[in-house]
Amino acid sequence: DARVTQTPRHKVTEMGQEVTMRCQPILGHNTVFWYRQTMMQGLELLAYFRNRAPLDDSGMPKDRFSAEMPDATLATLKIQPSEPRDSAVYFCASGKGQPNTGELFFGEGSRLTVL
Amino acid sequence: DQQVKQNSPSLSVQEGRISILNCDYTNSMFDYFLWYKKYPAEGPTFLISISSIKDKNEDGRFTVFLNKSAKHLSLHIVPSQPGDSAVYFCAASARNFGNEKLTFGTGTRLTIIP
Description:
The structure holds two protein chains of two kinds. By secondary structure, chain A is mostly beta strands. Chain A has strands at residues 5-7, 10-13, 19-24, 31-38, 42-50, 53-56, 65-71, 74-79, 88-95, 105-106, 110-114. Chain B is globular, with a radius of gyration of 14 Å. In chain B, strands 2, 4, 5, 9, 10 and 11 form a six-stranded mixed beta sheet that branches. In chain B, strands 1-3-8-7-6 form a five-stranded antiparallel beta sheet, with no helix packed on it. By secondary structure, chain B is mainly beta. Helices cover 0% and strands 57% of the residues of chain B.
């Protein structure tokens, strides 16, 4: 049963600490996305990769956030330094890309609390 | 600027009746639309989609309607069941323009009353 795997599921940290979230996309998928869920904005896109190349990170605060794909089986989202306003659920999703359907498969999310 | 809008944060429907969830978009380049369903503490799961070349797509109890001129789509669930209680997200992409990213609305929480 193929699925997107995210770690950690829950993270509580103090303001100023570095946080790294990891994602293993579904094997064979060539697009990877990071979304953040907040009450006010719903699901906001933070970063988007195709074939490991970053295509869009316009939704990401550049001064503290960074997203990478060191290899096809791992995507990372790093926050340094973390702030209380970063508290949210972060979702990773993967897809097969064009010309397949536009369906994305989501992981279960990483709930981040910054104190 | 919210390009995909779900103006109803919540909706309650009696079991067995029809649930209608609405979504509006502003970006004319959007050509592919999806609905996702989300349970608490889980990731969103794909429900149904529609391409801009169609105005209706049906899958079992779920039907999505697209009105391109009004930039409006809706999801109909008939009959509604208690397991349908969840948050529903509308999403859109501009696939024909090579952009696979999904822009989501803020979600509608559907509660089915037994």
